[in-house]
Amino acid sequence: xxxxxxxxxxxxxxxxxxxxxxxxxxxxxxxxxxxxxxxxxxxxxxxxxxxxxxxxxxxxxxxxxxxxxxxxxxxxxxxxxxxxxxxxxxxxxxxxxxxxxxxxxxxxxxxxxxx
Length: 115
Fold this sequence. Notes:
- By secondary structure, the protein is mostly helical.
- The chain has a domain at 51-114: 434 Repressor (Amino-terminal Domain) (Orthogonal Bundle).
- The chain has helices at 24-31, 44-48, 55-66, 71-78, 82-89, 97-107.
């Protein structure tokens, strides 16, 4: 039998607004008394420390681990040497469109994540 989940008290929430630029200052003044702290947003890549050129290799390794494959097993599936998989994961070898399609099929993901 399912139990009710105990709700944790929420002390604060985050609200985001889309307002016309001409009304932005008016909205800031209206909500200013309720704001406890100002935060700035960062991209997820910046937050986890992944540069744009590292992303295909990170996706390749993540997909490989998700499927429970070793580099050698993945290499055998796509018909390349294991060292090529290692070089692609470490950003030393580019992943072309055709290779991305083969990797995507082997890892059951869309090939565009490797480009």
